[in-house]
Amino acid sequence: MSKVYFASSRAVKWKYDESMPGKLERLLKESNLSNYFERDEWVAVKTHWGSEGAHRVVRPVFLRKVVDALKCLGAKPFVTDSVRIKGLDYLEVANQNGINHLSVGAPVVLADGLYGNDNILVKAGDILKEIAVASVIYDVPAMVVCSHVKGHIQAGYAGAIKNIAMGGVSSKHRDCGWKCGRGAMHTMGEGVLAWDKEGCELCYQCMEICPLDVIKFIDDELKWNSDECWRCGRCERVCQSGGLSLPGDAERFMRSLAAAAAAVLGTFGKNKVVYINFLTEIQPECDCMPTADVPVMQDQGILISDDIVSVEQASIDMLLKSPPLPQSAAEDRNMAKGDDVLFRLSEKPYHLQIEESEKLGLGSRKYELITL
User: Is the four-CA dihedral 131, 133, 134, 139 of positive or negative sign?
Assistant: First the structure.
């Protein structure tokens, strides 16, 4: 049974040790990072840099604590994420959200290059066949996965599995394009964008959010460049009128997440990856959106484990016990204590990603919770 270390967000004394940064320091010591990382070893600190307008990412102060703990071991950490929008723009987004060399105390590196196509094809099971793992993550010998736990319109629940399944994989490959990238998880078949002219309100949100500018409106007609599109699905997600759709299958998507996570983790040796889940500012949507809504549940705390399945299951178990917050999307849906808030928000079977990850041998849903 895997150990999951937990520190609550509550601060009941006016002492630094009771603060979240202070508790993270204690968690990092308690989890014995020296069992995983060596002197002079390069260690990727994988997180999500957010978006312009989406500020509820893992805060730089927490990333700095992780970096400092690794440096104390003599390791050489760097903070990384794969390209979500154009590479130079994404570095600027990270900087706007406070993630830079000065704040985190380590280099901030794009995992798959400025153009998002620096990657290695890795076998990824029956559904995906093979997937383009970001080259930096493929090559680095060790990793700490720092995940902001939240909702997600497709995954339902987004934690460590989603962080490395989509964040450890590039948007496209040089030869097989989006079909070997994270777009293969988002869509099925040919991934053809469907536009309903009658349902379209011509609000142009889809055009404005497209990271590659492949959507245009000419004489009120949508024009889409299929060859250049990453199939990230942002256009569909921001369409509030139902005028756009990409083909998808929720169960297939969950199993794809697990398969991609297995492919990414398969590039690491045994006991070379540690997972830190931050159950803070639990908003209803992903950090890649252009806004961040108010949290739908109260902050719970921080979880650390070397078992990705255990840390995810422990996170979900805590969220299931957390009542919905007023003046949030949860209240909009008339949720009450005892409701599965994240499922009600998305209607997606998010538990399948954890169950499938366990079936693939990534870890166990049975865990021992150790509270500091």
Answer: negative
Q: CB of 181 within 8 A of CB of 171? A: yes
In this structure, whether the domain defined by 189-245 belongs to CATH 3.30.300.20 is answered with no
At 58-68, the pLDDT tens digits run 999 999 999 99
**Which residue has tokens 């760097």?**
78
Give me the DSSP letters along 154-193: TTEEESHHHHHHHHSB-S-BTTTBGGGSTHHHH--TT---
Strand order in the sheet with 2-8: 108-110, 76-81, 42-46, 142-148, 273-279, 301-305, 2-8, 367-371
User: Would you kindly state where each structural domain of the chain is located, as residue ranges?
Assistant: 2-183+249-371, 189-245
SS3 188: coil
372 vs 364: CA distance, rounded Å: 22
Q: Splitting the chain (372 residues) into consecutive groups of 10 residues, what average pLDDT does each group show?
A: 97 95 97 97 98 94 98 98 94 97 98 96 95 98 98 93 97 92 84 91 93 92 90 87 88 95 98 98 91 96 98 98 97 96 94 98 98 94
Nearest to 296 by CA among 258, 261, 341, 259: 341
Answer CATH for 2-183+249-371 from 3.30.70, 1.10.3470, 3.40.50, 1.10.10: 3.40.50
Pairwise CA distance, residues 203 & 239, whole Å: 9
Q: Are 134 and 163 in contact (CB under 8 A)?
A: no
- DSSP-based three-state secondary structure for 70: helix
Answer for the pair 1, 18: CB distance below 8 angstroms, yes or no.
Answer: no
What is the CA angle 54-57-62, rounded to 5?
155
